[in-house]
Design a protein that fits this description.
heterodimer; A: alpha+beta; 49% strand; globular; B: 213 residues; alpha+beta; outer membrane lipoprotein receptor (LolB), chain A; twelve-stranded antiparallel sheet
Chain lengths: 222, 213
């Protein structure tokens, strides 16, 4: 109990500092007419060609002060006929961590989840990351403009998603996930991604949970 | 007529169950104990192995597979090094109860005793090299043969292992008992095939290869 009485204030201070480091998400923006943009312009759901890519994937994070590091291979495969995307993550030895199917705009099936990873919050986070990477979000959309960047706002599994798109090139610069007015995660593709295409590389930073996923397209023989 | 249909159904069922029980191109080994003894005798003089490997990961319901390759080293009694060289660099070293995993970013040391999954992977690898597959308590092992190979079919013996593997097939060269192929089948239909080639036996392998650093 003595230990708890000493630790509790420290935890409270730490929690306060942590929450104060994550300011409210606020955009200075000029409203546009919704007609100026549409879901079709950003969503992978309307991509024409079927396409696929293998990614070298690294995951870093912290759970309860313990550092977590994970690496593996991620397959993203989109079938334009069925508007289905398959996402499979395996380790280098070949063991499957997870295997999902995502249907446009919002359906989802888990084919396999490694027993240690089979947690609802983890499935939820992974689903949201992949959906937003591919521009899958729930209408209604609204749009805004910050200098030459268009900002598309949509729903994503109970959160808000903001797609930042260069007005001239039409390429997605990054996507923010906002929960309760705080930035929850940011998805960044490098180089900026043309909507409807798989990125060359991407990073997902989960700011609240301090997790970072980095993925780079691999060349491999079929 | 109904009797004839019933007979046909039974015949088909028997053929189906036979094909399920017996891998294609193989028949059951009659004297498993003799095979076990020969395997142990052959591997008892084995001090080290170094070989190349290629790995194909097959995905269920998709035609896609990912290919990788590298070098494999084993040193008696409990040292294994799996070094992936393409299309990515990745290293796994097993030494005693410890495991080192190294990717482009980080080296991670794992105590396999604290992880059932890692422990079982470690054990399966070592069993294949040491010829002790039959004594692994996590699997029920059935032996098959053809003119060129023995096939040791490892089926999980309990639920914890069943969640990880559907079956592990170990293909041994009939003449020298070298592991030629390893097929790790997962629940759900994905499987990983490792093919080993250019094996060298009992060459001097530096302990530095198996350092956990």
């Amino acid at each position: 109990m003595r230990f708890l009485s000493c630790v509790s204030p420290i935890i409270l201070i730490a929690l306060f500092l942590f929450s104060s480091c994550n300011p409210s998400y606020f955009l200075t923006k000029k409203r546009l007419h919704t007609s100026e943009i549409s879901l079709k312009e950003i969503s992978f759901c309307h991509a024409a060609p079927s396409q696929q890519a293998w990614y070298r994937c690294l995951v870093n994070g912290k759970i309860l002060f313990k550092n977590i590091h994970l690496s593996g291979l991620l397959l993203l495969k989109y079938d334009s006929n069925s508007h289905t995307t398959r996402a499979v993550f395996t380790n280098e030895l070949g063991y499957t961590f997870f295997d999902f199917s995502l249907w446009c705009p919002d359906s989802f099936t888990v084919h396999r989840m490694m027993p240690q990873f089979d947690k609802p919050y983890l499935i939820h986070a992974l689903r949201q990351d992949i959906q937003l990477l591919l521009g899958m979000a729930q209408p209604p959309f609204s749009s805004s403009q910050i200098s030459d960047t268009l900002v598309y706002e949509a729903g994503s599994m109970g959160d808000q998603a903001y797609f930042f798109i260069n007005k001239n090139s039409g390429k997605i610069l990054h996507t923010d996930v906002v929960a309760k007015n705080h930035l929850k995660a940011r998805i960044q593709t490098t180089p900026a991604m043309s909507p409807g295409h798989l990125p060359d590389s991407f990073a997902v930073a989960h700011l609240k949970t301090n997790f970072r996923i980095e993925a780079k397209k691999m060349e491999h023989e079929e | 007529m109904p009797m004839r249909n019933l007979f046909l159904c039974l015949l088909l069922c028997c053929l189906f169950s036979e094909s399920q029980a017996q891998p294609k191109g193989f028949h059951p080994v009659e004297n498993t104990a003799a095979l076990q003894a020969s395997l142990q005798k052959a591997t008892s003089s084995l001090q080290s192995i170094s070989c190349d490997f290629s790995q194909d990961k097959h995905l269920a319901m998709l035609s896609d597979k990912i290919k990788s390759k590298g070098k494999f080293y084993y040193k008696r009694a409990d040292k294994v090094r799996i070094e992936y060289t393409a299309p990515f660099h990745y290293l796994v070293v097993m030494n005693g109860g410890q495991m080192l995993v190294k990717d482009e970013q980080k080296s991670t040391r794992i105590n396999t005793r604290s992880s059932k999954t890692m422990q079982s992977v470690n054990r399966v690898m070592l069993d294949c090299m040491r010829g002790t597959v039959f004594s692994n308590p996590d699997f029920v092992v059935r032996a098959f043969e053809n003119g060129k190979q023995y096939l040791l079919q490892m089926t999980p013996a309990h639920d914890a292992m069943r969640k990880l593997f559907d079956e592990i097939d170990v293909f041994l060269n009939r003449n020298n008992y070298d592991v030629e192929r390893l097929n790790l089948k997962e629940p759900g239909g994905d499987f990983t095939e490792m093919n080993f080639s250019s094996s060298l036996h009992n060459t001097a392998l530096n302990d530095a290869l198996f350092k956990l650093r």
